[in-house]
Amino acid sequence: xxxxxxxxxxxxxxxxxxxxxxxxxxxxxxxxxxxxxxxxxxxxxxxxxxxxxxxxxxxxxxxxxxxxxxxxxxxxxxxxxxxxxxxxxxxxxxxxxxxxxxxxxxxxxxxxxxxxxxxxxxxxxxxxxxxxxxxxxxxxxxxxxxxxxxxxxxxxxxxxxxxxxxxxxxxxxxxxxxxxxxxxxxxxxxxxxxxxxxxxxxxxxxxxxxxxxxxxxxxxxxxxxxxxxxxxxxxxxxxxxxxxxxxxxxxxxxxxxxxxxxxxxxxxxxxxxxxxxxxxxxxxxxxxxxxxxxxxxxxxxx
Length: 302
Prior knowledge:
This protein is α+β, with helices and mostly antiparallel strands. α2 (49-74) packs parallel to α6. A hairpin with a 2-residue loop joins β3 (237-249) and β4 (252-261). The chain is elongated and about 80 Å long. Mean pLDDT is 78; it is low at 1-21. The chain has helices at residues 22-46, 49-74, 90-118, 125-147, 153-182, 187-214, 224-232, 267-282; strands at residues 2-6, 9-13, 237-249, 252-261, 286-292, 299-301. It has two domains: 2-214, Alpha-lytic protease prodomain-like, CATH 1.20.1510.10; 224-301, 2-Layer Sandwich (Alpha-Beta Plaits), CATH 3.30.70.1350. The relative contact order is 0.12. The strands form two sheets. Strands 3-4-5-6 form a four-stranded mixed β-sheet, covered by helices on one side. It has a two-stranded antiparallel ribbon with strand order 1-2.
């Protein structure tokens, strides 16, 4: 996908990407979000905070699935003259809003759980067990769907969220069983706090990653020093400076750099070697390099 300019004309080259597991992600989103609504109703009806907190966790995962599905769709849309990178940054903005909303939900659940520990309330343990067991089956089905839905970065990340949701369903199932067999209702707010901790871990990491991307930070798995060293090691390159690496969206990394050369005559080979090196060693494909000689005007190549 690129905006190219010829003499007297400007046009956008359209290269449509692959599905990136979009169909599996949308199906998983439908099942997960649908059952989250069921858990909200059942949790309110049965008086179970564990079900309500698990529903909140499923909403978190539903949003993660939605973001992944959205990214899969947006990845296929070409850039335009107004948005030369396309709309891929919507994924990051949505992740930021999602993480803030989940942190607010965690505060609500924690306050309610502490209140219930001080003043226990009756809980319908049987209903909690049934709904939690169905939720466990739904999460297993969604995990199977994602496992067979592709091997993209988005799909693998969504699968990790769903595996965490399995733990939430198990916690609610345990709470229902304890209440049903022993009548010990404090287990419900206790396990709701456990599920809240799971949400806190995911939401906090999502918040940090979103802010890091929006601040144009270097991706965590990329070493700026290693990239600079590899570029400088290419024959014909004297020095690398003004090196910038950032994340465009999930799985898309951008890089710009100035390469000081011995001679412009060998630029084609250096450019090709640089692209191969950055792609194979660091997974960076969106590259803009500027070639220059010491004390001479620079030349830009993309």
